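Checked the freezer inventory, then went back to the computational side. Two predictions to log before the end of the day. The first one is the construct we discussed on Monday; recording sequence and tokens without edits.
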Amino acid sequence: MKVTGSLITGGSVSLSTEPISLADVLVHTRLDSTSLANNIETHQSIFPGDHVVAASYSLVGTGVNVAGYLTIVNLSSGTCGSGGTVDVKIQESDTTATTNYTDWSGGAFTQVGTANDNAVQEKEYTGSKPYVRTVATVAGATCDFGVDVILSKYTPSDAAYINSLITVVRQHVENEVMGGVATVNRTNVEYLYEFPSANYIELPYPPLSSITSITYTAAGDTTAYQNTFSSTSYNATTGVWPGRITLRYGESWPTETLETNIPIKLTYVAGFGATASNVPPPIRQCMLMYVDDLYEHRGVHEILDQGKVNHYPIADMLVNEYRNFHF
């Protein structure tokens, strides 16, 4: 049941990140500085040199912020002493706190020994965390090696303009092209004048991820939304578009007399996931095409109409299966 005439959209409260990054746009548009030195940035995770025997992954490298950048991790090995081996793996984290790092799947380098030392191994980090580091085990004998984290970090002079286009395009694709679909997880707020007669409420901006709270203002309350409807009384129905708040069996909506000024507040999380990598590739590609078009035709009246982005039919076709036809 969509509560027609009663549901008031409060809008997005917070958005953690954009579905596409400046780095994504630079790759898509083939923009670079034409200078290799300006296109990359190198950080040492484990400094190069002779490293003595170290217990299982006790040699801990420095963390590097890789958020929004294409990232390569290089293990450069020199000579290992007789019987010496080196094991290195990549770890990832949401924060800089050393205790928050966990192993990244697929991040283990081939063990280095005397048979394959004096060589370079590289791995592209394709995870979704903003920080990476490397850890190592040295066994048997001292070994010479180091680990570098290399970022594709060219920043054009109009980076701020490109980032603004990303936001404009994301809003256009979410609202105008897909009909109100959330991409990266965000907290949304909706308001109701009254609880419905049915046992569920449909929410805009699918896909629904979770319900944060249902609060309401009863007649005579001195504080708005001071009452919380127990989360044990309802479920978040996430398997349908749009998502629903559904009463559990035997439960009912609050029966108190409500205040008259939009007394019910619904707070929920909508989106495909917490990071850009959770957003389906066709949606991200659609956004990249729009950003590319606007970047190449900035200021052209055929592209912008009274501050709004015109539709780009070829890009729009990519997101047909993700359109929201309910609202």
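The second is the one RB wanted added to the comparison set:
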Amino acid sequence: MKILFWGTPNYAVPTLNALAEAGHQLVGVVTQPDRRRGRGKQLIASPVKQRAIELGLKVFTPVRIRKEPELQASLAELDADISVVVAFGQILPIDVLAHPPLGCWNGHGSLLPRWRGAGPIQWSLISGDEKTGVGIMAMEEGLDTGPVLLQESISIGLLDNSEQLANRLSHLTARLMLKALPLIEAAGPGEESERMARLGLTPQDQFDDDVTYARMLTKEDQIIDWEQSALSIHRQVMGHYSNAYTTWGKKRLKIHSTEPLIERLRSDLSEDVHHLLGKWGQGEHKPGEILASETGIGIIVSTGGCPIVIRQAQVEGKGIAKGNVLIQQLQSGKGLILVETARSPL
């Protein structure tokens, strides 16, 4: 099949690779424009653009595809049989959706209709979902509202962070898309309703009670409130990896890895923290207080519930530290308070 691929972040690269390795004819790749990143604010191409160039593919970088009719016309001239979309980052207009004879198909990183929208992986972690997955969905004008062709779930571990989970889901997306393409091709072109009927898709509107939206995360969402429970804070850290932060002294402290010291979660915790369970009572210390340091493990901090272990963190101006190095950086004795914003240190 002749495929027009749409994608931007690392998440989309495994699917692009899989399509190329499977021998499909990639007539073009559409991705977000280069962005200025890092301290030097240099223009950096998206991971998908970088990989497309390596593969020798034609690349298009619309600022807003909805408002670029000339580019839409150029894409139509590629005469693709199908569009494959994975984390592109813009909503496609109806004219673009309607052009390929076999339709536009999206690999979405959630179990639809749960977590439609921009941040499904992060929100599945922040919300404490026990499982997530990937859906291959026929695209329509609504935000991730199209009927689903294939769907597969995976479990979420207590210690999974968003980067690890995204990596697993990205490869699942690639595998499911390769599985879906022969089915779509066999159904053939024709009226959309007839094609969809031949494919036996599952409409999402029969699950309206399960719809949730993964809104864009903000910097405010990254600020740790130590009055929350240990489990809520841990989910925030894992979901916002590696941007959740607090304040240490007058410096920002990014928290990269934690473990909530909750007895009922013993089997999901690392064995080296088991001896810390039950060592401190709930509500005996001010939330955010450093209670102790444990060699080879990290710093124990009080919360609004059970304590939590900070295993890996980054003090502003320093590199990522864990274990004894982290302890040395934060070793100021008991009573030091971590606070919820860098603008109001205690």
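For RB: The longest helix spans residues 162-187. The mean pLDDT is 92. Let me know if you want it refolded.
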